[in-house]
Amino acid sequence: MKSSILAIAFVGTSTVFAAPTGRSSKTTAEGSNSSFEIQWGPCPEGSPDALECGQLEVPIDWSAPEGEKTTLGMGRVKASGNASDRIGSLMFNPGGPGGIASDFCTYQASGVPVFSEALALHFDIICPDPRGVGSSSLVKCDAQVWNQNTTRFPANEVEFEQMVKVNKERGESCLNETGNLLKHIDTTSAARDIEAIRLALDDGKLNWLGLSYGSQLGGAYAELYPGNIRVMALDGITNHAQSPVDALYTESTTYENVLKRFFNWCATNATACGLQGENISKTFDDLVVAADKSPIPAPGCEATADTAVAGSCQTSVAGADIRLNVQGFLAFKESVSGLLQGWDYLGLALNQTIADNNATLLATALAVDDTSSLYADLAIACLDWLRPDTSNMTKAFAELQEKNTMGSSFNSHVGAASQTWTIQSGCLGWPAEVVNPQHGLDQRALQKAPPILLVNAKHDPETSYTWALGLKEQIPHSALVTRDGNGHTSYLLHGEATALMDTYLVEGMLPADGTVVES
Ligand SMILES: *[C@@H]1O[C@H](CO)[C@@H](O)[C@H](O)[C@H]1NC(C)=O
Ligand SMILES: *[C@@H]1O[C@H](CO)[C@@H](O)[C@H](O)[C@H]1NC(C)=O
Ligand SMILES: *[C@@H]1O[C@H](CO)[C@@H](O)[C@H](O)[C@H]1NC(C)=O
Ligand SMILES: *[C@@H]1O[C@H](CO)[C@@H](O)[C@H](O)[C@H]1NC(C)=O
Ligand SMILES: *[C@@H]1O[C@H](CO)[C@@H](O)[C@H](O)[C@H]1NC(C)=O
Ligand SMILES: *[C@@H]1O[C@H](CO)[C@@H](O)[C@H](O)[C@H]1NC(C)=O
Ligand SMILES: *[C@@H]1O[C@H](CO)[C@@H](O)[C@H](O)[C@H]1NC(C)=O
Ligand SMILES: *[C@@H]1O[C@H](CO)[C@@H](O)[C@H](O)[C@H]1NC(C)=O
Ligand SMILES: *[C@@H]1O[C@H](CO)[C@@H](O)[C@H](O)[C@H]1NC(C)=O
């Protein structure tokens, strides 16, 4: 799933697209072979010259195409090659569900090499923000309602009821500010949007690169429009066919597994890790217990602090926050210059927490205004994953406790903590219904799809290798490339896995299933 992760891990830029404020009067430069027409207009002030920004109106409810509309926003970086090099448009999703795709076109246009030279040469790169996200019409909520303090691990029925009440209030504030769109931001609707963009571009079949949640979105597209795909590379695989319990088990155990690898790395490489100690795993567990007893201050989050995060995170950090938030820090073992933090940043965060009693880096993010990017992440997931009924609180609490028990029986450090836990606990009581429940991809449809490339690291702290195998079972013509390493997604590492994705996306050549690469 994730890679809200990516959003967390990305540093060094504050470029955030403004919500679309109006339509450009400029008409489309493209000829269009559909009723959909992208308005290419000015980008937000300060955007790099090489970036183009587009908007497309689509129905909020795809089953009522003449009804109320919502606006999709996207970035584009034109192919650098000449007309004979150019293959078409390549659409990209970085993960999330609430990850802001358009930011990645902004990075690319600013000279940060997100995409390889081969992709930049052969394709116009299109970064469409899913409905509700980034430069598309946003999911909006009341920040104060959203930021209410509540536990994600209720210890008793009273705390459980309190959590469900807060979830409901959050969702109701989002419904109030977002309107009907909140009920239609599921991944199937987002996949229909991708088709509308493809038709509006009138540039041939779909070329797709989906990281993390982008693999769920790609899979949803493949189920609906298998014959309209040229190539589809899915990297860091989510499996939308799993039962809630399977999703929770497989995600929390892969997180635990990679956290142990982090401990081992620290033990053998203390200088790089930055966290010293005889027994790092014990240090971590002791910290979690201590922080649950007495939350650790996060002074950098105080509204008055002189930090980049002032006012945008909780001012104290409990053990549950540490267990939930450390997962995102494990996404990339090595830092990627200018873009991503490596494991050493987790070492630093834990060191500061222990040595300086300053847990700022581990603090849970807060919404700073009614357009926070935090909202869409949960709001989309709540429409995509089945959740228990909360009409009988006693029963619903007992079920959540059983999941918690499962987590702690297998994972002595993190328990059930994971993005899936955040979704499964955070969506209880959510006022918009599940409209795209998990299901296996339609096999008859997938027979019509071209060969699809799947990539996953063995030790991925978020999208378990299990998920990659699970999606592979649903896609008859697919090959899985395994990266024998750590971390969530591989494309941005620009190693051997990236080269295989590039060759496939450009030439359509699928690597042999079972290919294993080191980088
Ligand atoms: C328009 O789209 C239809 C169906 O997708 C296709 O058959 C036709 O060739 C397209 N026309 C042009 C001019 O591209
Ligand atoms: C296009 O550029 C490539 C190099 O990228 C070059 O080999 C080719 O001759 C060029 N074709 C035309 C028609 O200019
Ligand atoms: C948040 O709530 C928890 C219990 O749910 C409580 O222990 C903690 O002190 C509260 N924190 C703040 C900042 O109010
Ligand atoms: C709905 O939102 C408006 C502002 O957009 C606010 O004034 C009003 O109190 C909200 N109502 C509820 C029930 O949250
Ligand atoms: C320790 O970490 C540094 C920096 O990440 C790396 O260069 C070195 O190879 C590592 N050593 C071991 C034994 O892993
Ligand atoms: C934190 O880092 C400092 C050096 O930067 C080191 O001396 C200290 O032992 C570390 N503390 C912990 C708890 O790892
Ligand atoms: C680390 O501490 C744990 C108890 O918290 C213990 O089970 C484990 O054996 C210790 N490991 C080492 C290498 O001492
Ligand atoms: C706490 O840590 C944050 C993040 O490293 C830092 O910006 C801030 O200055 C620290 N605050 C104090 C009071 O040490
Ligand atoms: C609620 O669930 C509990 C536990 O499953 C059960 O004992 C109780 O009868 C249920 N209450 C109602 C009102 O159905």
TL;DR of this structure?
The protein is α/β, with parallel strands linked by helices. 39% of the residues lie in helices and 13% in strands. It is built from 18 helices and twelve strands.
Helix content: 25-40%
Main beta sheet: 10 strands, mixed
**What is the C-alpha radius of gyration, as a whole number of Å?**
22 Å
What portion of the residues fall into strands of 2 or more residues? 5-15%
Could you give the distance between the termini?
Answer: 21 Å
Q: Briefly note the structural class of the backbone.
A: alpha/beta
Number of strands: 12
How many DSSP H or I helices? 18
Low-confidence segments, ≥5 residues, pLDDT <50? 2-33
Q: What topology emerges from the helices and strands here?
A:
Blueprint (H helix, E strand, L loop, with lengths): L3 H6 L29 E3 L10 E8 L9 E9 L10 E6 L7 H9 L7 H6 E6 L14 H4 L10 H22 L8 H15 L4 E6 L1 H12 L4 E7 L8 H25 L1 H4 L6 H14 L2 E2 L18 E2 L1 H11 L13 H13 L18 H11 L8 H18 L8 H8 L16 H4 L5 E8 L5 H8 L5 E9 L9 H12 L8 E2 L2
Parallel strand pairs: 4-5, 4-6, 6-7, 7-10, 10-11, 11-12
Antiparallel strand pairs: 1-2, 2-3, 3-5, 8-9
Helix pairs in contact: 6-7, 8-14, 8-15, 10-11
